[in-house]
Amino acid sequence: MVVNCQQVWKEISNYIEGDVDAGLRVALDEHFGTCTRCKSLLEGARNVVQLYGDERMIEVPTGFGRRLERRLAQGARVRRSTWSTWSAWLVPVAALALITGGLRWANSLTVPHPLQSEHAQPGRNIPPDMVVVVSAGAKDFHVPGCDVIHNKDKIRTLTAKEAIREGYVPCVRCMRKYLQIASISPASSEPVAELSANVEAEDRTRSR
Amino acid sequence: MAELNVVLSNPEQGTTREQELIAQVQRGQTGLFYELVRPYERRVYAAALAILRNEADAEDAAQEAMLKALANIRQFRAEARFSTWLIQITVNEALMRRRRERTRMTEAIDDHRDEEGEYTPRDFADWREIPSEALERKEVRQKLAEALASLDRKYREVFVLRDMEQLNIQETAEALGISVASVKTRLLRARLMLRDLLAGGWEQGWFSRLPFEKGTKPW
Predict the structure, then answer these.
(1) Rounded to two decimals, what is the model's pTM?
(2) What is the ipTM of this complex?
(3) pLDDT tens for each residue of B128-175
(4) CATH code, domain carrying B194
(5) Which of A7, A17, A50, A51 is best to mutate for the B interface (most B CBs within 10 A)?
(6) Same domain as B95, residue B26
(7) Which of B99, B115, B145 is the last residue of a domain?
(8) Residue B55 belongs to domain spanning
(9) What separation, in Å, do the N-terminal and C-terminal C-alpha atoms of chain B show?
């Protein structure tokens, strides 16, 4: 069997996989022995497979493992309590009490502002450890990759809690979209009302 | 780190430990679940990122997928690879989220375009081997990540699942809901396109303007 270059290109990937029959393998080996162009393609494709298969090619955001562990722990707690039927009602009651209490406490600490427009909604359910980006001279914080970030060359990464502490407010476009998606999933996070109340309380303590 | 070395040097031991953990979690010790998935958390994230292309979405999808894996741990059967099972759940979660967003018209149009016809490689110049050690350099990893990100969605997803996540061809096809033949075609193109994108010399072409100190190698 003799193969030409076009046939070789079609089979290079299968050849790397070891997914060609014996006859074709011999023919391909012969071709690679004489055709430097196809040999170069094969070496390049093999190198690509080897490089991208390296563990170092996978980079995760800082704190990813810690946040996953925490969310799993929260999920496991909920599962355990739902298993024991006699105590299942405690979870929603306790959650309701916490949320109500937290919101009242937050409201008592913050000065109520009338909302200026439909866009001026307070951010809710923003996970404090969520990774967000801010840029110099701007006032919003964004989900990484948001289309409306100004001064993209001057952005820096921080957590939502830090961004709020520094006076940034949620971007109405990307954060709303992100939180709408997040609110569909049963993620349980501390509400930002509580979060910003904590931040403000800390700031007041510091300013005294 | 010491634990990791033990697992790597003795895969049998690692597998046994994993089986023990799976059995314990299946019996209700859910607190051990993170220990069970920790070795795969990076791969789980990468699978979600390949589909969603946004770090925050990928992280949330990865977390949600792991919660679903925990909720369904009793359905896991020992004949399957645990890592593959986790990645398949993650891919499902990510695909479901992407379907929920209806703003992918451009990529949807791309989908029908270029599977016909054969891919003709662009660059036949001698391939200059990029050694694994070069991955220590952030610029090299960045360049590779950019090349991957520039691929069309269908090529990128197949390539990530097969060559980065190490699923086999059949598993990749099942995870993405496409045929084995499509996986093979897309994989071939992805590999050749990446080769084209990275050809031209990583030492001369990519970083020729980077100021290195004379006489020193940066890795």
Answers:
(1) 0.62
(2) 0.80
(3) 889 999 999 988 999 999 999 999 999 999 999 999 999 999 999 999
(4) 1.10.10.10
(5) A51
(6) yes
(7) B99
(8) 2-99
(9) 22
